[in-house]
Amino acid sequence: MNQTYRIDTNTDIYLGDSKEILRLFPDNSVDLVFTSPPYADQRKNTYGGIHPDNYVAWFLPITEQLLRVLKPTGTFVLNIKEKAMAGERCTYVMELILEMRRQGWLWTEEFIWHKKNCYPGKWPNRFRDAWERLIQFNKTRKFNMYQEAVMVPMGSWAETRLRNLSDTDRIRDNSRVGSGFAKNVSNWLKREKAYPTNVLHLATECNNKNHSAAFPEELPEWFIKLFTQENDVALDPFMGSGTTLAVANRMGRKSIGIDIVPEYFDMVKCRLSPDGQLMLDMKRENEQTESERYLSVR
Ligand SMILES: C[S@@+](CC[C@H](N)C(=O)[O-])C[C@H]1O[C@@H](n2cnc3c(N)ncnc32)[C@H](O)[C@@H]1O
Fold first, then answer.
1. Residue to probe by mutation, ligand 1, list 113, 133, 210, 260, most atoms within 8 Å of CB
2. How far is the CA of 261 from the centre of ligand 1 (A)?
3. C-beta separation of 104 from 139 below 8 A
4. Which of 37, 65, 69, 214 would you label with 75, given CA atoms 20 to 30 Å apart?
5. Is the domain of 113 the same as that of 239?
6. Residue 214 belongs to a domain with what CATH number?
7. What number is the average pLDDT over the span 248-276?
8. For residue 221, what is the enclosing H or E element?
9. Are residues 164 and 287 in the same domain?
10. Structural domain boundaries enclosing 257
């Protein structure tokens, strides 16, 4: 049964299937979609597993709606990682990218989330998985991007590499591979900040114990800074415990979330309401023995 709840003027949450709920939203109304959908074939007991062979067909009606609701200047960032099955990596993420391009999306960029604190393990034919994809899609080539908002300190780079500049570093050095890109490293001398790379080094740990598939707050935070400004609208169509919404609100953005599981909808209602965190903490204490209820995997 679908439900809507307005937490405050900046935050709306919906209970239901994103495929249906997204139809309610106006065209070109969202600045950033940031989400981590259920992984293929996991969490069968709670919201139904999607077989890897059906994953693309399951997801495309949702991305079709996202394409409609995203503003032409907006960005869609998809946190996903293909699972391994029968000794091979599945191909549904690659297939999804190709199908989304056919749907009209531009595959603008891919970021890597390097999970700094990945736990140890041993597998017969691979090493432990320590990264996930953050795939960036856009509707147009001219989208909003606030690069200055995510600049990083020059740090040790300034003291080492920039101290010993070669002659080529001091002139405009055209790419040797003919890419057309050129750099003049000496431009960065005496600067305090540089632009980051497309690899984010973040721990998986987060304070949120109610949804084990929750991502750390730093993940949506970085992309919200990069692609939105105050009062812009961030949407998470698979909100889970509401991490994207909580961060967006803290940063002065409007937020919209959708989840198909009533417990998660109620949890976000508590988490984001002014006195809700207190209620949530009490509820968590009472239910600690029933921890299975709140444990979730993708
Ligand atoms: C990986 S979790 C998201 C976790 C979230 N990023 C967080 O920080 O808590 C995926 C969520 O998608 C929800 N979900 C699965 N299928 C859905 C659908 N068709 N429509 C809406 N939500 C769905 C699940 O209930 C689950 O909470």
1. 260
2. 8
3. yes
4. 214
5. yes
6. 3.40.50.150
7. 93
8. helix 218-227
9. no
10. 3-151+195-294
Q: Give the pTM.
A: 0.87
Candidate from 13, 212, 238 with most ligand 1 atoms within 8 A of CB, to mutate:
238
CA–CA separation, 77 vs 228, rounded Å?
12
Phi, psi dihedral angles at 129 (to 5 degrees): -80, 115
Ligand 1 close to Cβ of residue 47 (< 6 A): yes
The CA 20 to ligand 1 mean position distance, Å, reads 14
CA dist 217 and 12 (Å) reads: 19
The C-alpha atoms of residue 225 and residue 232 are separated, in whole angstroms, by: 11
The rounded mean pLDDT for the chain is 86
pLDDT tens digits, one per residue of 53-80: 999 999 999 999 999 999 999 999 999 9
Domain boundary among 194, 226, 259: 194
- Mutation choice for ligand 1 from 62, 64, 259, 296, CB with most ligand atoms inside 8 A: 259
| Same domain assignment for residues 103 and 179 | no
DSSP 59-100: HHHHHHHHHHHEEEEEEEEEEE-PPEETTEE--HHHHHHHHH
- Number of domains making up the chain: 2
Q: How many residues does the chain have?
A: 298
How far CA 196 is from CA of 96, 199, 204, 246, 279, in Å, comes to 27, 8, 20, 24, 39
Number of Cβ atoms within 10 Å of the Cβ of 262: 12
Residues 42 and 162 in one domain: no
To which residue do tokens 């080539």 refer?
141
Q: Is 260 in the pocket of ligand 1 (CB under 6 A)?
A: yes
